[in-house]
Design brief:
The chain has 216 residues and is mostly helical. Helix 4 crosses helix 5 and helix 4 crosses helix 7. The protein starts with a helix and ends with a strand. It is built from seven helices and three strands; from the N terminus they run H-H-H-H-H-H-H-E-E-E. It has a domain of 103 residues: Cell wall hydrolase SleB, domain 1 (Arc Repressor Mutant, subunit A, Orthogonal Bundle). Strands 1-3-2 form a three-stranded antiparallel sheet, with helices on one face.
Length: 216
């Protein structure tokens, strides 16, 4: 009798173990709950040793201003009935540009002892040369051109007595010649020489004014 009880107990234990094994391998979901799979984590962050420089935003270029530049108002015309009156009415500038100094200096040294018409004629020759494209294209270039004016020595003018009436008159005459506010008696002349010399130029003679003969 005792042997039968031991045998029955052994059978019951075996049956219990069999049932547990079947339950363990029966379902995949259950197995996953018991033995969860290893999920790969996020990749490790790689640090860059070089600094990252952000580009500076490019500002759009400003549109070109197509408006025309303002035109300066011309100097008011001086009403005069004679060249002498026009010379007297000219304002004396506090400072002269280099170009105007060259023009006034040529008038001063070439013709300061002559009439106003003679001084104007000399000034207009320099201006006509500058405009002709046959000579330098500036007053100073014309005046300092080699072997053209006898008063130029070593590429320089002699000292000018700027406190003298002759210089103030030459400055006024340079302004008149530059502005074209009075016609020269030999308008269009490009050459002149003193009456004391005879170069025998093959040029068209225009006229004699004081101590100079003018040609085109």
């Amino acid at each position: 009798m005792r042997s039968k009880l031991h045998w029955a107990s052994g059978v019951a234990v075996a049956a219990t173990m069999f049932t547990a094994l079947v339950a363990t391998h029966g379902s995949g979901a259950a197995a996953e709950e018991i033995f969860p799979s290893i999920v790969a984590g996020p990749s490790a962050t790689t640090f860059v040793s070089n600094p990252v420089v952000q580009d500076v935003p490019v500002q759009p270029e400003a549109e070109e201003d197509s408006r025309p530049e303002p035109v300066s108002e011309p100097a008011p015309a001086i009403s005069a009935t004679s060249l002498r009156q026009l010379v007297a009415a000219q304002p004396q500038p506090k400072a002269l540009s280099r170009e105007m100094r060259c023009l006034a200096g040529a008038i001063y040294f070439e013709s300061r002892g002559e009439s106003l018409e003679g001084q104007l004629a000399v000034g207009r020759v320099i201006i006509e040369r500058m405009r002709s494209h046959r000579f330098p294209e500036s007053y100073c270039g014309v005046v300092f051109q080699r072997s053209q004016f006898s008063f130029v020595k070593g590429g320089r003018m002699p000292t000018i007595r700027k406190s003298s009436a002759a210089w103030r008159r030459a400055v006024a005459m340079a302004q008149i010649a530059h502005d074209g506010s009075w016609d020269s008696p030999v308008e269009g002349a490009l050459f002149f020489h003193a009456t004391r010399v005879s170069p025998n130029w093959r040029l068209k003679r225009l006229a004699r004014v004081d101590n100079h003969i003018f040609y085109r």
